[in-house]
Specification:
By secondary structure, the chain is α/β, with parallel strands linked by helices. The chain folds into two domains: 5-241, Peroxisomal Thiolase, Chain A, domain 1 (3-Layer(aba) Sandwich), CATH 3.40.47.10; 251-401, Thiolase/Chalcone synthase (Peroxisomal Thiolase, Chain A, domain 1), CATH 3.40.47.10. It is 35% helix and 19% strand. The chain contains 13 helices and 14 strands. A ten-stranded mixed β-sheet has the order 5-4-6-7-1-8-14-13-9-10, sandwiched between helices. The protein has a two-stranded antiparallel sheet with strand order 2-3. Strands 11-12 form a two-stranded antiparallel sheet. Helix 1 packs across helix 13, helix 7 (164-178) packs across helix 13 and helix 10 (267-281) packs across helix 11.
Length: 402
């Protein structure tokens, strides 16, 4: 069985805002949610700019018992999953228990771990929080999503670093397309802005102290962000029959592994993932109207991704818009692929090209149209969204305007 797969629900939460409407407005306006740390203690850190979720009050979404079992990453996941399911309408109504699933990125409970270590090593406490394990375990976000939404079918977490969100949505897509599921809620979340993690990323020397400027010649590194995004996927015919609003059609999924280096990306492997996604979607390179790039703003990543794009698209790249929405909401790690897909779907649905903000000067090694500093209206029909992770684990999603 091979079925078409509709995207009928969207949820998003990041430095751009608390919901999909905020994200749409921010993407169109070129809003940059990156700035000096406001909610995390940056004392003792060299890097002072991050992409924080502002004005998020957990108590407004969860009761005390729930909060006792949820790390911030799980909270963000559940809030976006709720938004996506509400947007999709009664998507779960009448679905057999085994035919509704949830697949989300694995996300370690960094805030829970940090709190526990501080109690043990700085405050000499006898024990950490009694629910440290369920709060910190990487499947915490997806487990909480199933309990909150009442999902009883296949549910699990996928760990592939910064490709996790895209891998999760891609696997859910395959499960719906194959008939294993009728409906899936999928996405990713990450809440890494703790002192320990920020110091660890500083040690890698890939963080920018100024901001995120993908593809600009003077780019200086990535900006860590927190956030989450969710989508509801379902059998296209079922979505039409129940009168659901279809935001876009998910048409293809490509994966590859570099098998070479833990931190340095490989252009050949990245190109292969894009080619697999196009083949899966039945697209020729010239059919693609927009690429949401991985675009982290590190010198090596952007150069390598450009080489990969040139390999896949050839002469078509000269007229193919390629932008990085991470320039606005930072690199949200396990949530990145999911947030980038939501941005891509909004671009398809609304007919515009999200900008790459912070762009200052052309880089001959990144000779692409990165939609610098201002969105453009454009009738996009087909697009792809790239996610390339440390460890050389790559995932690319292809989507079509409904």
């Amino acid at each position: 069985m091979t079925r078409r797969v509709a995207i009928t629900g969207l949820g998003a939460l990041s430095a751009l805002g608390a919901n999909v409407a905020d994200h749409l407005a921010g993407l169109k306006a070129g809003t940059v949610g990156i700035g000096p740390a406001r909610h995390v203690n940056a004392e003792g850190l060299k890097t002072k700019v991050y992409a924080e979720v502002h004005d998020f009050q957990p108590e407004a979404h969860f009761d005390g018992r729930q909060l006792g079992l949820m790390d911030r990453a799980a909270q963000l996941a559940v809030v976006t999953a709720r938004e996506a399911l509400k947007d999709a309408g009664p998507a779960l109504e009448g679905v057999p228990l085994e035919k509704a699933g949830a697949i989300f990125s694995a996300a370690i409970g960094y805030n829970t771990m940090e709190e526990g270590y501080q109690k043990l090593y700085l405050q000499n406490a006898l024990r950490p929080h009694p629910f440290t394990v369920p709060r910190a375990m990487p499947n915490g976000p997806v487990a909480n999503v199933t309990m909150d939404l009442g999902i009883h079918g296949p549910a699990f977490a996928i760990a592939s670093a910064c490709s996790s969100g895209a891998h999760s949505i891609g696997v859910a897509f395959q499960m719906v397309r194959s008939g294993m599921l009728d409906v899936a809620v999928a996405g990713g979340s990450e809440a890494p802005l703790t002192f320990g993690m920020m110091k660890s990323w500083e040690a890698l020397r890939v963080l920018s102290s100024e901001g995120c400027r993908p593809f600009s010649r003077d780019r200086s590194g990535l900006v860590l962000g927190e956030g989450a995004a969710s989508v509801v996927l379902e059998d296209y015919e079922r979505a039409v029959a129940r009168g659901a609003t279809i935001h876009a059609e998910l048409t293809g999924f490509g994966m590859s592994a570099d098998g070479l280096d833990m931190t340095a990306p490989d252009a050949t492997s990245a190109a292969r993932a894009m080619q697999f996604a196009l083949k899966d979607a039945g697209l020729a390179p010239g059919d693609v109207d927009y690429v949401n790039a991985h675009g982290t703003a590190t010198p090596l990543n952007d150069r390598t991704e450009t080489i990969a794009l040139r390999t896949v698209f050839g002469d078509h790249l000269a007229k193919l818009p390629v932008s990085s929405t991470k320039s606005m909401y930072g690199h949200c790690m396990s949530a990145a692929g999911a947030l980038d897909l939501v941005a891509t779907v909004l671009a398809l649905r609304e007919g515009f090209l999200p900008p790459t903000m912070g762009y200052r000067e052309p880089d001959p090694e990144c000779d692409i149209d990165c939609v610098p500093n201002a969105m453009r209206e454009a009738p996009i029909r087909n697009a792809i969204s790239n996610a390339f992770a440390f460890g050389g684990l790559n995932a690319v999603l292809a989507v079509r305007r409904a």
